[in-house]
Amino acid sequence: MTYAAITGWGKCLPPAVLTNHDLSAMLDTSDDWIVSRTGIRERRISHVGLEELGYVAAARALAAAGLAGSSIELIVFGTCSHDDQVPNMASGIQRRIGAEPAAAYDINTACTSFLYGLSTASALIRTGVVKNALVIGAELISPFMDWSDRDVAVLFGDGAAAVVLEASGREEGVLAEKLGCYGEARETLRVQGMGGLYANRGVLYGITRWQFEGQEIFRRAVQGMAGACEDTLTRLHLKPADVDLLVPHQANLRIIEALAKRAHVPMERVYVNVQRYGNMSSATVPVALCEALEEGRVRPGALLLLPGFGGGLSFCAHVLRWGERTTPRQQSDAELPPNEMPAPEIIRRCLERKTRPSAAAASATPFA
Ligand code: UT7
User: Fold this and answer.
1) Does ligand 1 lie within 6 Å of residue 29's CB atom?
2) C-alpha distance from residue 18 to each of 44, 97, 137 (Å)
3) Topology given in CATH for the domain delimited by 3-362
4) Looking at residues 64-77, what average pLDDT do you find?
5) How close is the Cα of 198 to the center of ligand 1, in Å?
6) pLDDT value at residue 357
7) Is the pTM above the cut of 0.90?
8) Are 162 and 289 in contact (CB under 8 A)?
9) What pLDDT is stored for residue 122 in this prediction?
10) What separation in Å is there between the alpha carbon of 214 and the centre of ligand 1?
């Protein structure tokens, strides 16, 4: 039997920090409200494009695995905030790491894109189609944020992480997963402005209006993730007590706590970093996994449970067996270009670019 072991991991967080205090200078909100409702204290705002974030994370993951980019056979890029739809993001990474002619495709299930990518890449390794893969979860939400809407502007951040998967005869990597979607609730999270529908109505790329029903998403998130956790553990004849570390999607500390309670995993065995980065969509789980490893919270042979939810509304949970090695083989020297700009200034410049392209477009009612 062939498994898909995780042999490399790497993250890339842009350096500019946007604090709750920065946000309360821009919006009618407060540090108290944001911390008490979400647990978030700060998030990162990127000064570079999505490909750059994804590339640095990928280069670090390859070094951790001790593999050259040229040996990679498959690249899966999970995101909903593409630099371009065509060509896709994965082909850009393929070129940057020198992996030609590796297969390269993007996956968009919003915040669950990395975990869905982990499923498809693991399946292609297990069935012998490829012998290794690079799976990336990277997101550049800030250019698509409606910075005038306090309901959403306080919740999200930018970031990226990647893992390398390799075929293995040992029982490692994803052991079971549950994937699902509440399609009838898809309108609870819609970013109007991201897509051809709006471009054809004269909306300049980056101008958005968020349709967002926080409480309904919260309820479905806990329900979907808890059900998926139970389903995967039951399928493997495992119990919550067998889980060494729960590494959930990081959207809101209260969602994580409600999930942990329903999944019967005590908070001491839950990894939380939402306070530092907010919701980085598809990047949250792989960044959390990298940091759990850096902090020594993943021991050799550990059983990990990775639940996620996102737009769609998609949900999932993966049970993963870690291998023997919990430290990187090598370090990469890949770095982002330096940045001097504070996060509010990056946002201000981004808003300046979001002006309507023509008088005709200005008279349109694009979100009607
Ligand atoms: O990965 C998928 C992405 N989606 C999510 O993660 C969303 C999941 N949902 C949540 O995390 C929570 O529902 C939120 C954090 C979005 C909201 O928390 P809540 O406890 O459900 O608050 P609420 O929506 O019930 O709002 C309570 C009050 C409202 O005022 P009124 O109507 O009670 O006067 C809001 O207008 O808080 C107000 N409010 C704010 N106040 C200060 C909403 N946003 C803010 C804000 N600052 N940023």
Assistant:
1) yes
2) 6, 30, 21
3) Peroxisomal Thiolase; Chain A, domain 1 (3.40.47)
4) 98
5) 26
6) 53
7) yes
8) no
9) 98
10) 6
